[in-house]
Design brief:
single chain, alpha+beta, Arc Repressor Mutant, subunit A, three-stranded antiparallel beta sheet, 5 helices, 3 strands
């Protein structure tokens, strides 16, 4: 559990997990938004931390690497944890309406 919470404690990694949670199937590393927003070495580090924590699965497919969230495994070991964290993340990062806006 501490390793999972550490991995999800970083905003960039939480963003990766949030994007993967919205996908119904594995996606290419290059299709993940964070990859284009940070240095390549930083992106690789974030994927490594998530993989070693057991949050994601990385599968080579030709010249690409497909990434998927290990939702089933996480749900089996920690029921409701991932959904709770992602719901909190989505609420805290949604743009707030400014006063006076309709």
């Amino acid at each position: 559990m501490p390793t999972i919470l550490y991995a999800l404690g970083d905003p960039w990694r939480l963003k990766i997990v949030g994007q993967l949670a919205a996908c119904s199937e594995a996606i290419s590393c290059g299709d993940i938004d964070v990859v284009h927003e940070v240095a390549k070495s930083t992106g690789s580090h974030h994927f490594k931390v998530l993989r070693e924590a057991g949050l994601i699965r990385m599968m080579p497919q030709g010249r690409r690497i497909l990434v998927s969230l290990r939702r089933g495994d996480l749900e089996a070991h920690f029921p409701g944890l991932l959904d709770t964290i992602l719901q909190t993340y989505q609420r805290s990062y949604q743009p707030q309406a400014r006063s006076g806006d309709s």
